[in-house]
Write a structure and sequence with these properties.
The chain is built from four helices and no strands. Helices cover 66% and strands 0% of the residues. Helix 1 packs antiparallel against helix 2, helix 1 runs antiparallel to helix 4 and helix 3 runs antiparallel to helix 4. The radius of gyration is 20 Å and the shape is elongated. The protein has one domain. It starts with 29 loop residues before the first helix and ends with a helix.
């Protein structure tokens, strides 16, 4: 009688749950994404949205991304993923799409910064817009890092 072989162990690492989320790349990027994105929203809102067409999109992208990323972080913390591989695909698609949207928002915010340099409330709005542009590009970089580092686990 032949003995049955045990099933092969999965070569895929388990998705983190609980506090391990903050120690595991790329999931450790979620909290900095939320914090930097929140700074973008706060800094743009502090300029009284001087250029509504440009900065309205920036605020929409930053606020929506912060909320969805917060929900994603909470789902990882509470283990809603149940170690399903579909969560990796969802995570990668979300962060890739958000990186593209954030890049467009960062470029529009940079344009608003340039336009505010000689505006009526210069230098205050220029400084706020410059800081918002900086955080928008940092946030874009974090989303790109997150999206691509899933493939290198």
């Amino acid at each position: 009688m032949a003995s049955a072989c045990p099933p092969a162990a999965s070569t895929q690492p388990a998705l983190p749950s609980g506090p391990a989320v903050f120690k595991t790349i790329p999931y450790a990027f979620i909290l900095p994404e939320i914090l930097c994105g929140t700074w973008v929203w706060i800094l743009v809102a502090a300029t009284s949205v001087s250029f509504p067409l440009l900065q309205g999109w920036v605020m929409y992208v930053s606020l929506t991304s912060c909320l969805i990323s917060l929900l994603l972080l909470l789902s990882y913390l509470f283990g809603f993923h149940k170690n399903s591989e579909n969560w990796k695909v969802l995570d990668s698609l979300y962060h890739g799409a958000t990186a593209i949207l954030y890049m467009s928002a960062a470029v529009l915010q940079a344009n608003a910064t340039i336009r505010s340099e000689f505006g009526p409330n210069s230098p205050l709005y220029y400084q706020l817009n410059s800081a918002a542009s900086f955080f928008a590009f940092i946030t874009t970089f974090l989303y790109i890092l997150h999206a691509f580092s899933i493939y290198y686990q």
